[in-house]
Amino acid sequence: MQGDHGGHPRPPAGSNRDIARKVGVAPSTCLERTRLLRERGVIRGYHADIAPSALNRGVQALVSVQVRPLSRTVIDAFKAFAAGLPEVTAVFVMAGSDDFVIHASAQDNDRLHAFLVDRLSQRKEIVGFRTSIIFQHLAKHDPAPLPGA
């Protein structure tokens, strides 16, 4: 690791010096701006993009979940429960007909089915869920800012 990143790992884009060169500022300016962006919560971390298959997660699905009664206590408890499951990679609290969307993955279809039947369907607050298998996934890791109002 080159440079002081305040206890954070080096950004995947390269060293502070590399980033400074790419954006056309002095390394000290780049380091200070990066530190300020982390402090303000603009930069929340640095992540590796790992193929799910390398983690033995050959099947991915989005599970839309409805819970009742719809209260903050139930929402918070279910969110914490779902986030703690090893098969779950993301939990989204939603507005609309579904209360949650869970991004889950498993080794194969049988294990995904076991997760749904043995874990999710056993929760008393769940009144329904619908599963969509993911065939392909494309994620933008560098979205451009949208214009302000």
TrEMBL record:
Region annotated Disordered, chain positions: 1-21
Annotated ranges, domain HTH asnC-type: 15-58
Keywords assigned by UniProt, alphabetized: DNA-binding, Transcription, Transcription regulation
Top-level division of the source organism's lineage: Bacteria
Protein name (record): Lrp/AsnC family transcriptional regulator
Natural source organism: Lentzea kristufekii
